[in-house]
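Query form — protein ArsR/SmtB family transcription factor

QUESTION: What is the three-dimensional structure of this chain?
INPUT:
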Amino acid sequence: MSGLLPTSTDASSEQEGELRTLWLDSDDAGELLSSLSSDTARAVLTALHERPATASEVADSVDTSLQNARHHLTNLREAGLVRVADTRYSQKGREMNVYAPSEDPLVVFVGRKERKTSFLDSLRGLVAAVGVLGVLSLFVQWLATPAGVASDSLPRMADSVGSGGAATAPLSLPPGALFFAGGLLVVALLLAWQRWNRLDRPTV
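ANSWER: The structure tokens for ArsR/SmtB family transcription factor are given below.
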């Protein structure tokens, strides 16, 4: 009968939910910091970000007792940092929870509300800029690829050009990748200039 029960899991450590924000002086932040007050608790959360695991697997991973691992998993769940992502069964048919990080990534803020708003606006702008760069890079790569020639055959074509005895030059990066890298550099320079502008602004 136990052979019919699932002994593996499809749970993932990916966090695909909405970004959560938390003020340091809020009640929820106090619970969160309390749940992460020990080295073992932080090790448990780090291990789950690497891969989902059962309580016994967590205990083995961070070198602690099963009872201690369950204690920290309970605290982390109550703080909203960990969730039960799946259920699987041991070889003996015993049901076990599979733990994973919360689906929603979390940012804790210290300071004024204006800084929080500014940070979130910058983060959203950065994500949007990288997304646009990715789409444009694919378009540039499509324009640069000769019609009817598969992209994976380009290295072999380049190798055959240099096969006449002369040394073959190393294959350069695809145009789309170069465009994407250049765009990231421009975005980084703009962010650095914006930050320098803020720091250079005299305080009143």
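ADDITIONAL NOTE: Residues 113-200 form one domain.
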